[in-house]
Every structure is written in structure tokens, then in C-alpha cells.
Amino acid sequence: MAQFEALVKESHGKELEISERLKVVLVELEAKGGDVKEAQAYINSAMDVSAELDSTGKVQYVIGIFSLWFMDREGGIVFAGRLGVAAAVMLGFWFLSRLSKRLVKKAFVKNQKGSRIMRNFTIRSIGWVVMTIGIMVALSTLGVEVGPMMAALGAGGFIIGFALQDTIANFASGMMIMVYRPFDEGDFVEISGISGKVEKMSLVSTTLLTLDNKELIIPNKKAWGETITNYSGRDVRRVDLVFGIGYTDDIEKTIRVLRALSVEHALVLEDPGTTVGVHSLGDSSVNIFLRPWSKTEDYWDVHWDLTKAAKQKFDDEGISIPFPQRDVHVQQIHA
């Protein structure tokens, strides 16, 4: 095998020397209008040592060429070393990325400032930044010029930006939502007339989970550009209830009954206080409003409990709840 490699190396050297000389001759001949196609084909055939070998010889030839390249000072050994260094660099930056994410996560646990959306985005971004730096360093160890690559990306940025203008608009809107925090993950919101719980958010879209368990994905551009109602934005909410009683019923008695129901409910807050009064005079009823306050998470429990309790208490106290009715007067005209 060693003798074969020596033969291949010697033959390869002669091929290079002959090819360089003939190349000059062919260039001059072609410049003078000569036909160099046949000569070029002959040279290619003569230089292709593997053309005269069988399948086993071709395999040995390829192995020999690879061995020469691998043992060369500028060949495989150097490349393998660089590849090993690049792999070690990537592994190191991978561990550094995980460590950075853990440290940032612990810092957010100690300091609860900022929305959950912003915290999750920052943690992921730290990992991306560290790994991007690791890729650039690894490419540098392999001899790749990173500078021209960055310049090429910058030159193509305009074209990419034009093609992805909607995505970039969603990205920018997502950043605005993270900075100004009109809502957070877990909040119950209404966006563009659509109500639901914010299940998750990315830089380009917001996912809402509706009360009937439907998943709606809203582009951040639309979410940021429309009116946002955040029902979970405050710790305390007012429960607005309206009850209709008959015109012959006692208004003051009804107000006392509703106020007592509010005071007795365990989830109704003492401060702010409950407000009860006459809301309006309807076509068929006197409408009494009841406005207690509760914690945001107790809103619907208070709403449903007081509605049920009011109906039962009205029945016990003889307070009527009228339904819409219309009196029809028939006048008979005699001929």
C-alpha cells in the first residue's frame, strides 16, 4: 500500500506539471484560432489515471488520493483539527447558553417585574444570542470568513424585509405588546370583538382560548392595532347587576334586600363599598341596580350567586319581577 501511495503521489505530481505546460500551449493555440477540443479531451483522458483501472483499482485510487490529502500539512489533519475545535466550541457555547438561560430565569424569579411574556421572550433570546455567537466563532475556527457573510446578509436584508413585510409588522407589534404590556399570559381579554384567555404569545401572533375551548390565533399586528379590553388587568372588578321590579312594589324594601344579599356574600369586598339604587324606569318595570365589588378571579361566582339569591329572596319577600306586557284596547264602532 505504501508503494502504491508513493506511485500515486509521483504520478499526480507529473500530471500537475504536464498539465500546467500544456495549458499554456492550448491557450496560445486557441488564441490563434486553433481547435483545442480534441487536444483537451486527450489531456483529460491521459490525466485520468482511474479510467484504466478496474473497480478495485478505482477504490484504491480514491483511497490513495484521500490519504495523500489527509496526510498533507494543509489537508485533512489540519481540517480534522479545526473541525474538532469547532465542535468543542459549539458544545461549550451550548452549555453556556443553558447556563445563561437558567441564571436569567432565577433572576426573574427573585424579581417579578415585567410581564410573563417579556420574561419568557428574554430567556429564549439569551439562548439564541449565545448560540449565534457560538456558530460565528465555530465558523471562524474552520477558516470561514464571517465578515463577508454578514455583509451579504446585510445586502439581502432589504429584499428579505420587503418579502416579509407582514411578518416584520407582526414582529414589531409583538415587541410593542411586550414593552407596553396591555395584557399578559393568563389574562382574559377582548380583542377585535373576540373574548378569550391569553394562552400564549409569540413575536408574531397571540393565541386566545375561548370559553367554549376554541383556540384562536390573532396576528400581533391586528391585536396591537385594535381596541384591547383586559378584564384581568386589575385585581378588583365591579359586578354590575340590574333587577326589574313591578311599579307597585316597594323600592326601598327592594334596595334593603339587595344590599343585605351583597353584605352576606363572602366574596363581596367591603372596600370599595356596594352601591344600590334606581337605574331606570322601564316600560314594564322599575330597574334597580346592584354594584358590588369583588376580586377579579371571583367575578363570575359573585355574579351568578347574587343573581340566584336575588330571585329566591324576591319570591320570599313578595317582590315581583314583571315581564313585558302590553294592554290592547278594542273600540267597537257601530254603523
Automatic annotation (TrEMBL):
Keyword Transmembrane: yes
Family annotation (InterPro entries): LSM_dom_sf, MS_channel_C, MscS_archaea/bacteria_type, MscS_beta-dom_sf, MscS_channel_2nd, MscS_channel_C_sf, MscS_channel_TM-2
Residue ranges of domain Mechanosensitive ion channel MscS C-terminal in the record: 239-321
MF GO annotations: mechanosensitive monoatomic ion channel activity
Bilayer-spanning residue ranges: 76-96, 126-144, 150-172
Record's keyword annotation contains Cell membrane: yes
Membrane topology, from the record: Multi-pass membrane protein
Subcellular location field: Cell membrane
Keywords on record: Cell membrane, Membrane, Transmembrane, Transmembrane helix
Principal location: membrane
GO-annotated cellular components: plasma membrane
Pfam families: MS_channel_2nd (PF00924), MS_channel_3rd (PF21082)
Residue span, Mechanosensitive ion channel MscS domain: 166-232
Family: Belongs to the MscS (TC 1.A.23) family.
PANTHER family in the record: SMALL-CONDUCTANCE MECHANOSENSITIVE CHANNEL
Protein's UniProt name: Mechanosensitive ion channel protein MscS
Upper taxonomic lineage: Bacteria, Pseudomonadati, Verrucomicrobiota, Verrucomicrobiia, Verrucomicrobiales
